[in-house]
Amino acid sequence: MNSEFGTTAWGRDWQRLAEPTSLTRPDPALPKARSLARRDHVTDVELHPGEITAVVHHSGSHRVRVDVPVWDGEHVERARELVTGHGDDLPDTVHSTLVRAGQPPAPQPDVVTASCDCTGRKRPCVHILAAFFEIARQLDHRPRLALVLRGVEDSHSPPSTARVPIGLLDPTDFYGEPGR
Ligand SMILES: [Zn+2]
């Protein structure tokens, strides 16, 4: 059962990065990775344009870093216009509009790079997979973060703090930039 991850189109993108449908055999580390995220063993998640870092607690504490390309100015503007008037809780229809416009919110798997400081040789390791699941869960809760990750910073709508996971982001970085 993994229905708690990817309950929105925004989170599903990252669930799919962890569980690519192209795999003929599921990665044996996936159940463990899901369990780590579910049991809040992924902490200190920080999301910035182009970068996510997190600490995963399993066989020690390991720092995971995920890099994704940010959009260019034109794409950022287009996405910003599209989400104007929406709060943090962007509906899946905004996601599908972006996909139809040829600007899917999720980076393609081949441009996502992830690193972990563990000594395991397997990549992605269980820590990276756990971080992907945690990212999926957090984007389900706050879809707008999927756009922040691609470079769309928004200073117009105040954060709704009700469901902000602790440590998810630095509010000064997220909202501190003057809007245009
Ligand atoms: Zn690792």
Automatic annotation (TrEMBL):
All copies of domain SWIM-type, residue ranges: 97-136
Keywords attached to this entry: Metal-binding, Zinc, Zinc-finger
PROSITE patterns xref list: ZF_SWIM (PS50966)
Protein name: SWIM-type domain-containing protein
Coiled-coil region list: none
Keyword presence, Zinc: yes
Position of the signal peptide: none
Keyword Metal-binding: yes
Taxonomic source organism: Actinopolyspora mortivallis
